[in-house]
Amino acid sequence: MVAMRILAVSILAITLVACGKKADVPVKTAEQEKAEKDAATKAVRDNPVYGDQFKALDKAKATAAAADEAAGEAAKKTDDALKKLDEQK
Predict the structure, then answer these.
(1) Cβ–Cβ contacts within 10 Å for residue 12, how many?
(2) Average pLDDT of every residue of the chain
């Protein structure tokens, strides 16, 4: 008898929780998300513990971009040289 009451109360509680109103999640615009990301990035760069690592990552990204650009230019020069050789034949 007691077990039936406990079971009935548990089912009622679960039903009430399941049917409850869900909290509205605030919708952020792209501008708000970008502003938050920029603020977090600035905070990390100013952090004495992680700032140096973050700056090193930025430097590595810049170096990789420069290497990609140099490789692209070298590939273009190589293609131009090969075209000249083909034209001469």
Answers:
(1) 10
(2) 87
